[in-house]
Specification:
This protein is an alpha+beta fold. It is built from 38 helices and 40 strands. It has a 6-stranded antiparallel β-sheet, with helices on both faces. Helix 6 packs antiparallel against helix 7 and helix 34 (1081-1106) packs across helix 35 (1123-1130).
């Protein structure tokens, strides 16, 4: 390389390996700058030389091409062979640098964070030369510049100024007032000059030399010889630190005896601001202590300009006394240690009632009244006292909401509004949202369908224009929640310009907008009922919704004496034309053939607003029209018993990944419906089990940072963080282009491309703050057809118990635990099927709008995407020398002599566990060279679980504190009283506790019971075995909590439970109802032991395959507290009480015979699995938790 440039030797000495990316890039730019070709790294190439190009254009192209080739040579020649293979196929030097930045650029992020932390946290130490401090700060700034951090000159200067000591406050004030604009070098010179001036000045507050030589401290009093006051006798020294005493509210002024009036200017005090004040008198001060003793201070100054008039002080010599004005107390210190505090006696008017309020632990005034009335408290009068701020801080609660507020007295005096959506299905016309406006006086409602939330303002203008023209009155108040759609500047300005008062609800109090909230809930309840009865597709919910609001306006409500329609129009409503929504109808044709049928069979779907007649849908022609000539077949329709359950809820409208402890397959649940025509075969929808649907929701909540993340491209463009979303989308598209995910082609004849959409998430860090903004392009895989667009979809994920086992081993052996994240993991998978997709919104190629994307690789959202990625990764990691665990396909091991490394794959999250830092670093390098990786360093937060570690004690803890706080807030339980056990001892649930009346059932339907159980279930599966029994019990009611459900108190089925520990920590646990009824405790325990033995076999095989736990070669011991069950497990017996046990449970005998497990007896009081089968007293429960290693985190770390 030295043939090109002598400076190129620095690249030879510092070849790119990965971790040295920042240094290598800096050296490369130096070399390219010297050769004057650095511009090719940023500039676009000139237009290709065409046949009609000028000579100047051809020369420019040749020059750029020559420079680009030279830059490519420098880049390729200064990196390792592995990286050369990755980059040599790229076209330009700019492409190479972009690819390298994707691979290694993230590594500089942690370095930038460290440098920024050093810059912002470094403070100047008093006495340190300012030059030394500023040079240190400049070194941090230069380091940030080198790492690519963007800081303007003003920010750099502000960082330095904010780190200075208080002695530079005057300089900082002058700098800001004069609005200086200087370089860092100029700032350094200015600060050095300021430092010289500060050194020349006298101390901030001082006495004249004459005063310093005369002031003495002479304590007097008969009791000052006692212990604790000996230091006062020693303190007959010069006064140097100064202190004032306030005369207001104390007996200080009365205690001062003037000895001598000072001459003008005799004693001058200089303040920190530069101002000077004069003392006017000197004398003796008698300080009366709370102990009735008197402390006499000689040579005190009287300073009228001070708020605190009197000045005195002391000096440290043998003993130290310090008189403090901040709390009116005297601290007596001997040998630098405080020994006592003597309080001044205040003479202040204090409310005696308030004093008793404080004394009695901040009880309320009603209790004080009762104490006075009953006699224990002697107060002449109970007086009201001002607001107690500590009470506000300690007792603040939400104000209760009354059942009824102040009602409006006329129409349009108050309008309630609320936006609902996005709903789970798109309505005809592309609608996902709707907005309602309800008049408070009449309860008459208006409803408008919307595609985006941003349409709310236009809908309000449409609503206002209509109702004000109809009624002749004006809207006065608009009440809404705090949704962002109501806080747009144009919306607020419009309300202000038209004299309409905006009345948003206070934060966290949706009850204030209860009228609109309840109306939306009622509307959706009606729509679900109407849709369930009809034959119409769910996309017709928009028409059902408009019909529902039409009907609600014409039926009575508890809130008003008449119907809303009557109060709004002053006319009684007519119900003669009301028909059953969705019923079949025969509608007369507009163009009738003489020999053909004169009507079409259609479905009634609503009432037009702008014309008379009815809305009908013709299924054969798939069109909606208005007609008044129809015959409705309501009677036959009402007798139809076939019903379809319709799910229509607000949702996040994005696919979600489900972690499952018992099912290794990753289930991708689509959350958007198919809008293609359904096939003629069975329309039965195959859904994942309820347990996965619940975990679905929980995992989504754990991974999401915010509930208000944008759900559409339009919302992201209107979001306050629009710039972050744009960068995130550009980064995602760069990944698409880099991985060559698709090519643009003409749309094939007869092919319908699948759609795609953007999904936005704010990712939270361990502290709960936004860490990254992520935009993901997702294919609408729910429109794929089995056998055409995909075949197999199964993809394994690591089980949580596998992760816990490996973490336990890592803690025991003090292994390293590192974490990496695969960027755009699914883009690495290859697909065999031919799939076409629409171009993503916001990135449609100009001039190629009609073309579609032919997918060359898998993309998020495709049904086979997860499987394709897993196959690709499995093949790659095995080629690097890793072997796959037979019993856990997502756990890999690599052994080289005494070096061992484990790799755990959970979709796109990777955990590396090993005993050699060098080997693990090489693995990270290899992964980064094959996939776009993000190095997260030492693992601290995995799958929403916080890791705590004390390597000295060989301890590792798992906590879901952020997740638990989140679900408590979600179900409004963040302020609930803390309990000590998850299930109260002695409580038994049964079907008799289920709702019986219709009112109770309706109330229960509104409770998020299943969602709450699912939230608990995720915590139980991950880190909380202590709630296993409680979750098992309450989950039996989640399917239909408002009906009679058989529980164990009714069907007498027992509970199987077990818990396995490794290294004094629980690694696997279970508590579930047995599927057969046992007629004795022996049989129940035998069945439970059989289930535990099967789990033990898997654990033993898995750990044996790891090859690092020698003790696993011995049988795993199962402790059982029933001798009968043990006897049946050890040897076959044909006892009359056990001979009927099903054969499948006798598998435990073979397992014991093979030597996989051994079963021994344990006393019931010591059985650690006891909390998994029943509620226990608190002390017993806590004892078992301690054995399982479940403790409060702060008791361990």
């Amino acid at each position: 390389m030295t043939n090109f440039n002598p400076l190129a030797k620095i690249l030879d000495d510092n070849r790119l390996t990965g971790p040295n990316y920042v240094d290598w890039k800096r050296n490369l730019i130096i070399v390219l700058t010297a050769d004057k070709i650095v511009y090719v790294l940023n500039a676009e190439p000139p237009e290709l030389a065409l046949t009609d190009a000028t000579e100047e254009q051809r020369n420019a192209f040749d020059k750029w091409h020559e420079a680009d080739e030279m830059a490519k040579c420098y880049i390729l020649a200064s990196m390792t062979n592995v990286l050369q293979k990755q980059c040599q196929g790229l076209v330009t030097a700019k492409d190479m640098m972009f690819h390298l930045k994707e691979m290694f650029g993230e590594q500089s992020r942690s370095a930038r964070q460290t440098a920024m932390k050093n810059l912002m946290s470094t403070k100047m130490v008093e006495g340190t030369p300012v030059r030394e401090h500023v040079l240190k700060m400049i070194s941090f700034i230069n380091e940030l510049d080198m790492l690519g951090a963007e800081m303007d000159a003003e920010t750099k200067v502000d960082a330095i100024l904010s780190s200075l000591t208080d002695s530079f406050n005057q300089f900082i004030m002058n700098y800001n007032m004069n609005k200086m604009d200087v370089t860092l070098s100029e700032l350094l010179n200015m600060l050095q000059a300021a430092e010289d001036l500060i050194k020349k000045e006298k101390p901030a507050v001082m006495l004249a030399e004459k005063l310093e030589s005369t002031l003495k401290f002479k304590p007097k009093g008969k009791n000052f010889k006692k212990k604790g006051f000996q230091s006062f006798k020693k303190a007959q020294e010069k006064l140097s630190p100064l202190l004032g005493f306030s005369e207001e509210g104390t007996n200080l002024q009365k205690g001062f005896k003037e000895t001598r009036r000072l001459n003008e200017g005799e004693v001058i005090l200089k303040m920190g601001t530069g101002a000077t004040v004069a003392a006017t008198a000197i004398g003796t001060f008698c300080l009366e202590l709370s102990s009735s003793r008197t402390l006499v201070l000689d040579e005190c100054l009287y300073v009228p300009e001070f708020n605190n008039k009197f000045l005195a002080s002391g000096i440290l010599q043998d003993g130290l006394y310090v008189i403090s004005s901040t709390d009116n107390s005297v601290n007596c210190v001997e040998n630098d240690n405080a020994t006592s505090v003597l309080s001044l006696k205040r003479k202040r008017d204090v409310n005696p009632t308030y004093m008793w309020h404080l004394r009695l632990g901040h009880i309320n005034i009603d209790r004080i009244n009762r104490l006075v009335k009953d006699g224990p408290l002697k107060l002449s009068k109970v007086e009201p006292y001002p607001i107690c701020e500590p009470c506000l801080q300690g007792k603040m609660t939400k104000n209760p909401f009354t059942r009824k507020g102040v009602r409006a007295t006329d129409v349009l005096e108050l309008i309630h509004t609320d936006v609902c959506g996005p709903l789970t299905h798109m309505a005809r016309g592309g609608f996902f949202y709707f907005i309602t406006f309800i008049d408070d006086h009449s309860r008459y409602g208006y409803l408008y369908l919307m595609k985006h939330k941003s349409e709310s303002f236009e809908k309000f203008k449409e609503f206002r224009n209509e109702v004000e023209k109809q009624t002749g009155k004006c809207i006065k108040i608009l009440r809404s929640d705090r949704g962002g759609e109501y806080f747009l500047d144009e919306f607020k300005d419009y309300l202000k310009d038209n004299g309409i008062i905006s009345q948003p609800t206070p934060p966290g109090t949706p009850q204030h907008n209860g009228v609109a909230e309840r109306r939306n809930r009622t509307l959706l309840d009606m729509v679900r009922s109407m849709m369930s009865m009809s034959e119409l597709p769910v996309s017709f919910w928009g028409y059902a919704l408009e019909t529902a609001i039409y009907l609600l306006n014409r039926v009575p409500t508890k809130s008003v004496p008449n119907t809303p329609y009557e109060l709004w129009t002053s006319k009684k409503p007519s119900l003669n034309h009301i028909k059953i929504w969705g019923c079949p109808s025969h509608v007369r044709k507009s163009n009738v053939d003489k020999l053909g049928p004169r009507s079409d069979r259609c479905l009634f779907i609503g009432y037009p607003k702008m014309s008379t007649g009815f809305y009908f849908y013709n299924p054969s022609e798939q069109k909606v029209f208005v007609s008044r000539n129809a015959i409705f077949l309501e009677e036959d329709y009402s007798l139809n018993e076939s019903r379809t359950k319709v799910t229509l809820e607000e949702q996040n409208d994005r696919p979600m990944t489900v972690p499952s402890e018992n099912n290794e397959e990753q289930v991708i649940v689509p959350t958007e419906p198919s809008n293609v025509q359904e096939p003629r075969r069975s329309t039965r929808i195959i859904r994942p089990p309820v347990r996965l649907t619940l975990l679905n929701e929980i995992y989504q909540m754990e991974s999401d940072g915010f509930d208000n993340d944008p759900v559409t491209y339009q919302e992201a463009m209107n979001d306050k963080d629009v710039e972050h979303w744009k960068k995130a989308m550009e980064s995602e598209m760069d990944s698409m282009y880099t991985n060559q995910v698709w090519t643009l082609v003409d749309k094939p004849e007869g092919i319908k491309p699948i759609g795609c959409k953007w999904i936005y998430k704010r990712k939270l860090g361990p502290t709960g703050k936004v860490e990254t903004y992520k935009a993901r392009l997702v294919a609408k895989g729910y429109t794929q057809k089995a056998g055409i667009d995909y075949e197999e979809t199964f993809s394994p994920v690591a089980m949580l118990k596998s992760i816990r086992i490996l973490l336990s081993i890592a803690a025991h052996y003090d292994y390293e635990i590192w974490q990496m994240d695969v960027k755009t993991a699914f883009l690495n998978g290859n697909i065999r099927e031919e799939i076409y997709m629409d171009q993503p919104v916001g990135f449609i190629s100009h001039g190629q709008e009609s073309k579609v994307c032919k997918l060359m690789k898998s993309i998020y959202g495709l049904k086979q995407a997860s499987r394709s990625w897993n196959i690709r990764f499995d093949e790659a990691i095995k080629s690097f020398g890793f072997s796959q665990n037979i019993d856990e396909p997502c756990v890999y091991k690599k052994v080289s002599g005494r070096i061992i490394t484990f790799l755990i794959l959970y979709v796109d999250d990777i955990l590396l566990i090993g005993n050699d830092v060098g080997a693990m670093s090489s693995i990270k390098m290899w992964l980064s060279s094959h996939f776009a990786m993000k190095d997260l360093g030492e693992a601290s937060y995995i799958l929403g679980i916080k890791l705590f570690r004390d390597r000295k004690k060989r301890l590792l803890g798992l906590s879901q504190v952020n997740y638990i706080d989140k679900i408590l807030a979600r179900f409004s339980m963040q302020d609930s009283k803390k309990g000590f056990s998850p299930f109260r001892h002695g409580v038994h649930l049964s079907k008799n506790m289920c709702p019986k009346t219709q009112e109770e059932r309706e109330k229960m339907r509104n409770c998020p019971y299943a969602s709450a159980v699912g939230s608990l279930m995720y915590a139980m599966l991950c880190t909380r075995p202590d709630i296993c029994y409680a979750v098992s019990i309450v989950s039996r009611y989640q399917s239909n909590p408002d009906s009679d459900f058989q529980s164990n108190i009714d069907d007498r089925k027992s509970i199987s439970r077990f818990v396995f520990t490794l290294g004094k920590g629980a690694i696997s646990w279970r508590s579930c109802k047995q599927d057969t009824t046992a007629d004795s405790t022996t049989e129940a325990e035998y069945i439970a032991a059989s289930e535990a033995a099967k789990e033990a076999v898997w654990i033993r095989k898995f750990i044996q395959e790891l090859g690092v736990v020698p003790s696993i070669e011995s049988p795993i011991t199962i402790h059982c507290d029933n001798n009968g069950a043990i006897a049946n497990a050890v040897e076959p017996r044909a006892h009359k009480r056990t001979k009927h046990i099903e054969r499948r449970f006798h598998l435990i005998r073979d397992i014991i015979h093979r030597g996989d497990v051994e079963i021994t007896h344990i006393a019931s009081a010591n059985n650690v699995a006891d909390p998994f089968t029943k509620a226990l007293p608190q002390k017993v429960f806590e004892k078992h938790l301690d054995t399982m290693g479940v403790k409060y985190m702060y008791d361990w770390f």
